[in-house]
């Protein structure tokens, strides 16, 4: 399942990059003198949405897979949080798109992008094996031992 976590992280990164391209193609890419990317905002929005659907589908599949395999609660919970954050972000994304890109919803969507990335990294960390204690320095480094 660790491989699935890495795939989700890669797809999530791609979604964020495409979202940045969408923003750079649209009306909120800076002040009136800022140059746009030159990409068609509609086409970029569709490509971003397609990648989001792949990400959400993978995340839901991994969540079900983790539950079916009896993964530790912290891992299944991290997957569930990611799915919930993604779905919430999707609602905000649809609202911003169909409401004509009001700036305050765009800002909320950018905050949601940060939350998606944080939840993605949380899942990846939860799926990572614990660091080995073998070979570690076992001396007491607390302040109390220096007195």
Please give a structural write-up.
- By secondary structure, this protein is an all-alpha fold.
- About 70% of the residues lie in helices and about 0% in strands.
- Helix 1 runs antiparallel to helix 2 and helix 3 runs antiparallel to helix 4.
- The protein is elongated, with a radius of gyration of 20 Å.
- It starts with a helix and ends in a 20-residue tail after the last helix.
- The model has no long low-confidence stretch (mean pLDDT about 85).
Order of helices and strands: HHHH
Q: How large is the share of residues in beta strands?
A: under 5%
User: Mean pLDDT, nearest integer?
Assistant: 87
> Can you count the helices?
4
Form type: elongated
Task: Give the structure's gist in a few sentences.
With 147 residues, this protein is mostly helical.
Features:
70% helix; mainly alpha; elongated; 147 residues; 4 helices
Please outline the helices and strands.
Elements: H1 2-25, H2 41-68, H3 73-98, H4 103-127
Helix pairs in contact: 1-2, 1-4, 2-3, 3-4
């Amino acid at each position: 399942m660790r491989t699935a976590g890495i795939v989700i992280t890669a797809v999530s990164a791609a979604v964020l990059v495409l979202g940045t391209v969408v923003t750079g193609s649209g009306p909120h890419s800076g002040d009136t003198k800022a140059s746009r990317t030159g990409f068609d905002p509609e086409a970029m929005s569709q490509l971003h949405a397609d990648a989001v659907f792949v990400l959400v589908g993978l995340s839901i599949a991994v969540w079900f897979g983790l539950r079916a395999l009896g993964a530790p609660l912290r891992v299944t919970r991290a997957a569930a949080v990611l799915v919930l954050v993604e779905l919430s972000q999707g609602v905000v994304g649809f609202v911003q798109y169909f409401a004509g890109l009001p700036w305050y919803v765009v800002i909320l969507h950018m905050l949601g992008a940060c939350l998606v990335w944080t939840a993605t990294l949380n899942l990846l960390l939860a799926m990572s094996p614990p660091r080995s204690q073998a070979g570690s320095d076992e001396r007491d480094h607390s302040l109390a031992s220096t007195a």
